[in-house]
């Protein structure tokens, strides 16, 4: 007959489980240590109910908490999980908290229902899986995940992730019913939040994305904020919908895709208020096939590459400033600015329309080869592409004095006594009139040179100079009238 101890050992080997309703206050952490010291297989706590606080535990061979249910708060403090930890299909009615714990292998919280799960200063060496689970609250504070963190198809009421280092995050086809806050967190591998609906407020504050990230097909039903975020690699908001206000404040983008693609592009959803305030777009920025249904602001933002708004409908309350655009050298810059010019024309925003026309001309000038480039350069110098009144007026005024000196030097060798020697009275005044009639040819009667300056003969060189002077004046007057027309033009 086997003795009693032998019978107990056999039962342990067969069941690999501990009695239900374990209470840490009653059993103490020593119970787990004793149990693990007698067997090298994973600790099996499947289907059991327990609560309390466990410190300095070492689950070197892993643990299974499948179908776990707690009737009181459970805390693991300074514990090490050396192998797989399985919490799948759990139904935790109270807080499950991990403080300063280390998870060396796979950590699985999938397909469970959790009231409150909190991780503080924890390390996940092989990532953590929350797929298909429901959380009233999920928080990660000062945690490090060196592999993928999966939230695919999860349902979360409140999420709080801050001061953490996450190698990769996937949250696809999930639902967030309440607040979703991510603060002071770094993502060092791909971030995918696709097909997810955020019912409550969303905020990413002081976050750094060092790899590509995507919010494909996601929907933000409440206010969303991206504040002081650094997207070091391209970020995609393909087909992403913002029903309420979306704030992008003081963010840096190394490429942003804010476009609609595929079937969605044929009938894009109407966006709410979109504000990119004090943002820097260092690489491409695509806003194609979008319906901006409310105020769209790019206040104090700078585009270092021309933004693309092809086939997008901009709201009337959309404004840009010329100093926001730094790119005229990209292959697509001319087309990008032409698109924005036409969009402003549609809303009769004449100042912005002319601004984008100027940028379009500058981009075309950059691509044009010499000597054609010189014409665009003169067009800008003399009239700022037809937008300036002061430039042609100032050049006309300067040309009057320049040609006055030239005529004096050519006709009278620069000597006043030669002017005085010519017939007639007020001879210096006649030289002024002679210069003025070729500077303003449409405002003064056309007088013959011999009548204006009697006794003075004109060489072929002088006649050529007079013709050049008159031609320059006509061109400058054209630019002057064009500037007046463009400045005060009204559209019906």
Keywords summarizing the entry:
492 residues; alpha/beta; 2 domains; 22-stranded parallel sheet; 18-stranded parallel sheet; 11 helices; 27% strand; disordered N terminus
Account of the 3D structure:
The protein is α/β, with parallel strands linked by helices and 492 residues long. The protein has a 22-stranded parallel beta sheet that branches. It has an 18-stranded parallel beta sheet that branches. Helix 7 (390-412) crosses helix 9. The longest helix has 29 residues, at 460-488.
The total count of strands amounts to: 42
The separation of the N and C termini measures 107 Å
Count of helical regions: 11
Give the fraction of residues assigned to helices: 25-40%
User: Low-confidence parts, pLDDT < 50 over ≥5 residues?
Assistant: 1-31, 34-38, 446-451
Q: Which helices and strands, and how do they pair?
A:
Blueprint: H1 4-15, E1 22-23, H2 24-27, H3 30-37, E2 43-44, E3 50-55, E4 58-59, E5 63-64, E6 74-77, E7 80-81, E8 85-86, E9 91-99, E10 102-103, E11 107-108, E12 113-120, E13 123-124, E14 128-129, E15 134-141, E16 144-150, E17 155-162, E18 165-170, E19 175-176, E20 180-183, E21 186-187, E22 191-192, E23 197-198, E24 202-205, E25 208-209, E26 213-214, E27 219-220, E28 224-227, E29 230-231, E30 235-236, E31 241-242, E32 246-249, E33 252-253, E34 256-257, E35 270-271, E36 274-277, E37 280-281, E38 285-286, E39 291-292, E40 296-297, E41 302-303, E42 318-319, H4 333-346, H5 350-367, H6 372-383, H7 390-412, H8 416-421, H9 427-439, H10 449-452, H11 460-488
Parallel strand pairs: 1-3, 2-5, 3-6, 4-7, 5-8, 6-9, 7-10, 8-11, 9-12, 10-13, 11-14, 12-15, 13-16, 14-16, 15-17, 16-18, 17-19, 17-20, 18-21, 18-22, 19-23, 20-24, 21-25, 22-26, 23-27, 24-28, 25-29, 26-30, 27-31, 28-32, 29-33, 30-34, 32-36, 33-37, 34-38, 35-39, 36-40, 37-41, 40-42
